[in-house]
Amino acid sequence: MKNKLIFLSILSIAIFILSINFCYAKPPFTTNEFTNDGLIIEYPSYGEVKVNQSFKLNTHVFNYSDGTNITNETAGCLLHIYASNGSHIFESGMNFSVEDNDFFVTIPGNLFVLGHAAYIIQCQTYDGSVGGAVSGTFLVTLTGETLDKEGYHGAHIFVIIFIMSLFVGNFFLGKSVNLEKWHNKIKRDYEGRNYVKLVLGSLGYNIMKNSFVTYYLIGLLLLTAITSFIANFNMVAMYDVFKVIMNIYLVGIIIIGLYFFSNLQEWIVDIRDQLKNEMWGIE
Questions:
Q1: CB 163 within 8 A of CB 216
Q2: What is the mean predicted confidence (pLDDT) over 49-65?
Q3: CB of 106 within 8 A of CB of 55?
Q4: Strand, coil or helix: what is 42?
Q5: DSSP label at 109?
Q6: 90 has which bridge partners?
Q7: 216 vs 208: CA distance, rounded Å
Q8: What Å distances lie between residue 8 and 11, 166, 204, CA to CA?
């Protein structure tokens, strides 16, 4: 019984750990670029963007000499996007928002493929007297967040090994638990009117008796950890496969749940009849 409680506690901790996203988003910040032509271009940093998801770029342009905000009344801006092979995949003029007082453009998500890409923001007054351009690179990832460093990769591997050890631990725990003794204790809890222990003991007993439930939950933890690990390495082909497997597995939880509660209901009816017969002295 104590071993069962310890195992369930470890399983709960594992679920909590995996509920935390293994990818940590890069904090947003503003990049300031001073051009030699008298313009200051400020824009949210291109760090990472999510593949197949549209992205909105906002840009503020100021006059370097006095800090005056440049609007679409006096200037215009263009955005260029380049793929990792150097091809020019996107070019668009930027709109202007009077409410936000900045230039903006929405980049279609279908332009992005996994890997590095580059951009150029080009702004110029209509009379051609003042202009400037800034450039940089960004990374397209499966999650749209910063890829973990080596330390986090190690953490992923540790969690995967830990979850696999739960399979082994559950197997040996099932061999060591005396289900008949546990069953008799549940009867004593009922006779002693200890309903809290009765409910918890009954639930734990049936989970251990129907060990496929525990194995299935551990499998879900393992799939979640592996899918997150694959996303960290931007392995898109494997990621797509594991996402399909994960969706099928999640549907399977419903079937497993229905089967488990069906068995639980049968057990409740059976133990009720046993207790009733014992009260009447029927063996």
A1: no
A2: 86
A3: yes
A4: strand
A5: G
A6: 81
A7: 12
A8: 5, 10, 9
Put the strands of the sheet holding 48-50 in their side by side order: 48-50, 131-141, 115-125, 75-82, 88-93
Token duo for residue 188: 């004593």
- The label of the residue with tokens 């279908």 reads 110
Which residue has 């300031």 as its token pair? 32
Burial of residue 5 (CB within 10 Å: 0-12, 13-18, 19+) is: exposed
Q: How confident is the model at residue 105 (pLDDT cuts 50, 70, 90)?
A: very high
How many CB atoms lie under 10 A from the CB of residue 273? 11
Tokens 């070019």 -> residue: 91
**Three state DSSP letters for 135-183:** EEEEEEECCCCCCCCHHHHHHHHHHHHHHHHHHHHHHHHHHHCCHHHHH
Q: Determine the straight-line distance between the first and last CA of the chain, rounded to whole angstroms.
A: 27
The model's pTM is 0.51
C-beta separation of 130 from 124 below 8 A: yes
Q: What pLDDT score does 21 carry?
A: 42
The predicted model gives 117-129 an average pLDDT of 89
